[in-house]
Specification:
Layout (H helix, E strand, L loop, with lengths): L4 H4 L10 H13 L3 H11 L27 E8 L4 E7 L4
Antiparallel strand pairs: 1-2
């Protein structure tokens, strides 16, 4: 598990204020097939501020120890892109 303030010390706003204004132009360029121009504009105006990723340490490890059981059925993995929540579900012995 990670948490950026463990290393950095506090929350910082990294949203680029130019990003929302640049988005329509980047889209227009992409739809026109001008990928290089779109990439340059997105790199200049849509990346976070600062553009580098901060280093941080792990918050901890999560270890789940489950008893050995019968084979699982109905196994499913999900990632909700709008919330960033990942989940796993399955059925073992009817549960």
């Amino acid at each position: 598990m990670n948490e950026e303030t463990l290393w950095d010390g506090s929350h910082k706003e990294t949203t680029n204020p130019k990003a929302l204004t640049a988005l329509p132009e980047v889209r227009r360029l992409l739809f026109e097939g001008k990928n290089d121009e779109a990439t340059k504009l997105a790199a200049a105006d849509m990346m976070g501020v600062p553009s580098g990723i901060k280093s941080y340490q792990t918050l901890g490890d999560l270890v789940l120890e489950l008893p050995t059981t019968a084979a699982a059925t109905d196994y499913r993995r999900d990632l909700k892109l709008d919330t960033g929540v990942a989940s796993v579900s399955y059925c073992v012995n009817g549960v």
